Amino acid sequence: NPLEDYTLAGVCEMKGGWYVVLMNKQKREERIRIKPNEKNEKNFKVAKVENGSSYLDTKVEIQMPGGKTGWVEYDKKFIVLKKA
Q1: Domain-located, residue 18
Q2: Alpha carbon of 73 to those of 5, 28, 58, 83: distances in Å?
Q3: Could you tell me the strand order of the sheet in which 17-24 lies?
Q4: Which of 9, 36, 39, 43 could cross-link 21 (Cys pair, CB 3.0–4.6 Å)?
Q5: Domain membership flag for residue 33
């Protein structure tokens, strides 16, 4: 999977499609925000979203430049709850 360095950081359905945030597992401060009909720094596009029984089971298929695709999902090691 060419996207193995990324984990899902957020997925939200909005007008026009899906808003997806990917986080680089090696450099956690590096985020890619994919919004409907807007360019992002990697030119990634959301191809498909599969919702599971809970949000942690959600998977997103990302289309990369050149037509390649790969799946990204939540990695429980990177889910951190912060106190309010």
Answers
A1: yes
A2: 11, 15, 6, 24
A3: 6-14, 17-24, 31-34
A4: 9
A5: yes
Structural domain including 20 reads 6-77
Residue 84 lies in a domain: no
Q: Do the beta carbons of residue 70 and residue 1 sit within 8 Å?
A: yes
Number of domains within the chain: 1
CB-based contact 20:34 (threshold 8 Å): yes
Q: What is the pTM of this model?
A: 0.88
Q: Do residues 63 and 45 touch, judged by C-beta distance below 8 A?
A: yes
Residue at 67: amino acid letter? G
